[in-house]
Specification:
The protein is an all-beta fold. The protein has one domain: Sandwich (Jelly Rolls). 0% of the residues lie in helices and 47% in strands. It has no helices and 10 strands. Strands 1-2-3-10 form a 4-stranded antiparallel beta sheet, with no helix packed on it. Strands 4-9-6-7 form a 4-stranded antiparallel beta sheet, with no helix packed on it. Strand 6 and strand 7 form a beta hairpin. The chain is globular and about 40 Å long. The chain starts with 13 loop residues before the first strand and ends with a strand.
């Protein structure tokens, strides 16, 4: 972890494109001894991230603005702003935006 902490403003970090949506790496495995990662993301109107799972790490989503339709193991969850959803590595999960506005994750 280098200096022992991570300090970044909104919008700072490595820019990625995942399934057509902009993601920013705030902290990744190499920064945290492979214990956790954190991304800032924007789900664009009509975005779909199909159900998938990640081997070796759990996931958490905190909805900053808007509303997402999420699924975990086939169970649909409507996640408004302020909603936190966490799930373990072996779970299949996906995201869909129904709104015409972009959503902050």
């Amino acid at each position: 972890m280098g200096k022992g902490y991570i300090s970044e403003l909104a919008g700072q970090g490595k820019q990625l494109n995942i399934a057509g949506d902009p993601f920013i790496c705030k902290a990744v495995g190499k920064d945290t001894a492979n214990e956790w990662s954190l991304f800032e993301a924007t789900a664009l109107p009509g975005s779909v991230l199909p159900d998938h799972k990640h081997e070796g790490f759990d996931e958490a989503f905190y909805i900053l603005e808007g509303e997402l339709e999420m699924s975990v193991e086939g169970e649909k969850v409507t996640a408004p702003a302020g909603y936190l959803l966490t799930f373990s590595a072996e779970r299949y999960a996906g995201i869909r935006t129904q709104s015409r506005r972009q959503q902050g994750i």
